[in-house]
Each structure stands twice: as structure tokens, then as C-alpha cells.
Amino acid sequence: MEKRAKTVLGVDIGGTKIKTGRVFGKEVVRTSLSKVNQSDSYERSLSRLLTTIDEVMTTDVEAIGIGVPAVVDPDSGIVYDVQNIPTWEKVPLKELVQKQFNVPVYLNNDANCFALGEKYFGKAKPYKNCVALSLGTGLGMGILIEDKLYNGVLCGAGEIGMLPYKNGILEQYAGSFFFDETYGESAKILYQKAMDNDTAALSAFKTYGVHLGIAIKAILYLYAPECIVLGGSISNAYTFFKASLDEALDSFAYQKQLENFKIETSDLVDSPILGAAALCL
């Protein structure tokens, strides 16, 4: 017997905005948006969040899932040191939202939500052991082991971007920092130039693919996943760094393992909302 589709909310607290979506089955049926201002007081930023939820809330909503760029205790529902909201140092977010809307609330960090969203709605569906990599401002990672999200302590598992690499950390070479600091232009602008066959832009993505390939080799050694799903804005340029990434994997010690390994790119629309909503499922 097929499970009844649930209506839930997914909330993405991003770097510059809070976006909430009402999700029915596999579809985001309505969204609400509010800007995030780092200068906002604690009360003002919380009000922005509650307002975006209220704007899409209906009586048939059964639960709310929230993805937060922070250290998260999913059991107590407390978030610590939210990166883009400086006043949120220790916030009992689960309790506050549940009290306001009287439905169950689930929290996790944004990278874990991305992985869970891919498992329920996207490219990770067929795989029991999978890693989701978010290629954006930083390098976020969520881990699925035997069909279950692996959180670690305070949802801290998967911080591969913090590993030492060259004269810094991996995130500086596999996130958007790399393009800004090395080429003086954003990944978005370089992607547009690469689409026009600009030689320098193509070279930038080729070099980026080598760095990302080294990160992926580390993931393969640690977790031996069946699949890695790439998401985030930089994943749009995958065709421009695929060859150099594959070349970096040529030195992976266990080539037989690669016969049962795939790299996919996410095709989810409203991926952060679906990922947060997946916490409720």
C-alpha cells in the first residue's frame, strides 16, 4: 500500500535570505522569502523567520524541517553560532517554532539537509551509501550510510572543507573562494565566460577540478560511497571540470572500487527547501 503524501514545510536559512516552502509529495507548491541582514537584532531576525513560515502555513501542514548553516543539536533543537546571523549564538529554535505553530519541528545543518533531500527526491535515491557535496561559497558535505543520514556529534560529520590542504584548507580551493582569490572573478562570471569558450576561464575550471578531485579521493578513502552527488552553484559548471577531476582520480589506489562508483549532479529545483522538508519524512 502506497504511503499517503504528507504536507510539510521546508525552511532554508541561507547566507542572504530565509526561504520557506510548502511541500506536498515531491513538489514545492508555495514559497515565501525574507532577506537576512547581519545587522538585525535577535528579535528582528527571529521575526523574519516566523513570518516566512506563517506566510505558507496551512492547517494541513504536519511538520516543519529547518536547515541551518550552523552547529546543530537535533535532539534538543538548539542551534549554535549561526554563520550569517551573528546574534544567534545559542537559540532554542525547535522550541520557539513549535510553540508558535504547534507542529513537530526538525533541525539539521544545511549540508546534511542537502544529502537527505537528494535521498528522498533526487539522484541519491538508488544508493544505500552516498555522499552529497555542496559546491558553493564553501564545501559542504552530507553523508548517507545504509540509507540513513550520519550526523556525528552536533551534526558535525562531513566537514571535509576544513581539512588541511596546501597553505590553507580544502574549502579555500574547492569553494567559490578559489575563483575570487586566484582569478579575481566569481565562479558565476567565469562560468559565463567558459560558456563562451574563454581560454582563461576554461583553465580556471580545469585547475578547480584537480583540487576537487583530491577532495573526492579523500572521501573515497574514508567512506567508499557508491555515488557522490554534486550540488550548489559551482556544480552547474561540471562539464568544464569533469575531465580534470577524472584525471585526479587516476591516482586513486583502489581502481576496482571506481567500477562501482558514480558522480552525479543534482537536478533538484528548490533543493535546500526539499532537503529541509526531508527531515520531516
UniProtKB/TrEMBL annotation:
CDD domains hit by this protein: ASKHA_ATPase_ROK
InterPro entries found in the cross-reference section: ATPase_NBD (IPR043129), ROK (IPR000600)
Homology family: Belongs to the ROK (NagC/XylR) family.
Listed name of the protein: ROK family protein
